[in-house]
Amino acid sequence: MKVNGIPTRTIRALDNGSAIEIIDQTLLPYRFEKRILSDWRDGVEAIETMRVRGAPLIGIAGAWSVVLAVKENPENGPLLAAAERIQCARPTAVNLVWAVQKMLTALLPREPSQRFDTAVKLAAQLTQEDVDTCRAIGDMGCSLIAERYQALRRPVNILTHCNAGWLATVDYGTALAPIYAAFERGTPLHVWVDETRPRNQGLLTAWELRQQGVPHTIIADNAGGQLMQKGDVDLVIVGADRITRRGDVANKIGTYLKALAAFDNDIPFFVAAPSSTIDWKLNDGKREIPIENRSAAEVLTVRGVDQTGHDASVQLAPPDEAAVNPAFDVTHNRFVSGIITERGIFAPTDLATRFQDQIANAGL
Ligand code: MRU
């Protein structure tokens, strides 16, 4: 997508894979800055601190971190130790483990001396596949918005939670991809953007939409239900960090409450995600998906800029106040109208039938 009119991707390799360039998302929406990672430990730090974030993007950042680990030492011992550290950098989004395991499966049968070239080629391939997959999700999902417009004959109001736009992927996004595709095709629409405390990923969504000229409004996290009751929301589209075989969805904390409110108000609730977000080994999301707990400090403070435009952090409550900070929640498949994937839009319980080949390839 474009930043100030310049086509930009969230991650790219420099010097044939000896370093990676990312957008430091901890500075957005206030400052747009790139950052260079030249050691796999920088990759782990960037994922843990959410300089790169969003399930598909942390998968790709994980793959390039493996490239940096191979550059440092391609022998089995150090490579496996680095890969283990990389894939554990965040626990909920399955894309990270998926990408690191794909890299290891390709690398381990090769001689250490051949591993760097193989790693660069595969990481570049996964990066391009992410772009193609997100574009396909956009193409598949934009019909949902066009159909709503045909029925309503006024701009379609879509609510989204967190950031599942191009910043959360290599390009285009997941939940925002159908919105961008519909907007490009001329479907009148407007997006309600949940601010998404405590990390305020909604502000990234608003920044993205603004860059592309898509009409949108930021709302407090608790406003969605009231807007739905008033008839101001026609459709909900969110992303996902892990989807189980039966279609339960882990996504940013607060997604579950939006799904409940949408269900109560007969509003379609769609999840957009690449098939790399589906964990075929898991079934019951509430019991089986690991939920990341982040620091209490994220709840007790809020970050922004002061009047001079400098970074400012405000303490909302005493720093020793008790606070818990689960970063994701799970929505049961019964609240999900459909899952928008690169292959089409499917009922959650149809995923396993539609992706039988992937299940077989995974030996499950
Ligand atoms: O904690 P984050 O910012 O990495 O969480 C991101 C989300 O929950 C997104 O909605 C999800 O990863 C889908 S991203 C395409």
From TrEMBL:
Enzyme active site: 241 (proton donor)
Task of the protein: Catalyzes the interconversion of methylthioribose-1-phosphate (MTR-1-P) into methylthioribulose-1-phosphate (MTRu-1-P). Also catalyzes the interconversion of 5-deoxyribose 1-phosphate and 5-deoxyribulose 1-phosphate. Part of a bifunctional DHAP-shunt salvage pathway for SAM by-products.
Name of the coding gene: mtnA
Protein known as: Methylthioribose-1-phosphate isomerase
Residues where substrate binds: 53-55, 90, 201, 251-252
Record has Isomerase as a keyword: yes
UniProt cross-references to Pfam families, sorted A to Z: IF-2B
Entry's family note: Belongs to the EIF-2B alpha/beta/delta subunits family. MtnA subfamily.
Coiled-coil boundaries: none
Catalytic activity: 5-(methylsulfanyl)-alpha-D-ribose 1-phosphate = 5-(methylsulfanyl)-D-ribulose 1-phosphate; 5-deoxy-alpha-D-ribose 1-phosphate = 5-deoxy-D-ribulose 1-phosphate
Site entry (Transition state stabilizer), positions: 162
Class of the enzyme per the UniProt entry, highest EC level: isomerase
GO biological process: L-methionine salvage from methylthioadenosine
EC nos: 5.3.1.23
Pathway annotation: Amino-acid biosynthesis; L-methionine biosynthesis via salvage pathway; L-methionine from S-methyl-5-thio-alpha-D-ribose 1-phosphate: step 1/6
Gene3D superfamilies the record matches: translation initiation factor eif-2b, domain 1, Translation initiation factor eif-2b, domain 2
Superkingdom classification of source: Bacteria
InterPro entries: IF-2B-related, IF-M1Pi, IF_2B-like_C, Initiation_fac_2B_a/b/d, M1Pi_N, NagB/RpiA_transferase-like
GO molecular function annotations of the record: S-methyl-5-thioribose-1-phosphate isomerase activity
Alphabetic keyword roster: Amino-acid biosynthesis, Isomerase, Methionine biosynthesis
